[in-house]
Amino acid sequence: MNKVVVFDLGGTLMEFVGMPPSWVDYYHTGFENVNNKYGLGISEKQIETASQILTEYNPRVNYRENEIPAEELFEKAVASWNCNIPVDNIIEAFFEGIKLNTVIYDYSFDLIEKYKRDGYSVACLTDIPSGMPDDYFKKCVLPLIEKIDLYVSSQNCSYRKPNPYGLNYIAKHYGVNVNELLFIGDEEKDRLTAERAKCNFCFIKDIV
């Protein structure tokens, strides 16, 4: 029988140092950097409006389980700017302004290897920070991605936790019943995701 362990990433195997669960307080800084980098001459009011739009779509502020592509969110946020900067460039400059610092926890690689030695396939199911493109996030955690057999995120499966879709997708990929999965995370929403999928769950603090 194929054994599968699924890790959450943020707060479980890695973190963006100093960032709170909701990033809304950093939106203004990100948009300011876009304005300054491209010399757009955007007003303070327009920057605040863009920040408010991102805030409205932040799932930690207004609950939602469906994922929205980052490009769609930023197009909505800067619609009033009337600038001709490609949305991908806006997103890149936005996150450059936030100056994220990624740390992978010391125990993460040993833990992954332990499960592999015990005969497990290792997958991940992670919610990406609202508005962050999947490719950008993957670059931040590339050393982890290289050790994981199957990467599933809210962006590439279209649903955020606690929606159980991601766990069901992983189970189908490996040809196992979802209740045979072991999901490891750090938040209550991770536990609730496992409960809704009817699979096993463990808090990371209980195994490290």
Description of the structure:
With 208 residues, the protein is an alpha/beta fold. It is 44% helix and 14% strand. The chain has helices at 27-38, 44-57, 70-77, 87-98, 108-117, 134-140, 142-145, 154-157, 165-174, 188-197, and strands at 3-7, 14-16, 102-104, 120-126, 150-153, 182-185, 200-203. The strands form two sheets. The chain has a five-stranded parallel sheet with strand order 5-4-1-6-7, sandwiched between helices. A two-stranded antiparallel ribbon has the order 2-3. Strand 6, helix 10 and strand 7 (200-203) form a beta-alpha-beta unit. Helix 1 packs across helix 2 (44-57) and helix 1 crosses helix 4. The chain is elongated, with a radius of gyration of 18 Å. The chain starts with a strand and ends in a 5-residue tail after the last strand. The mean pLDDT is 97.
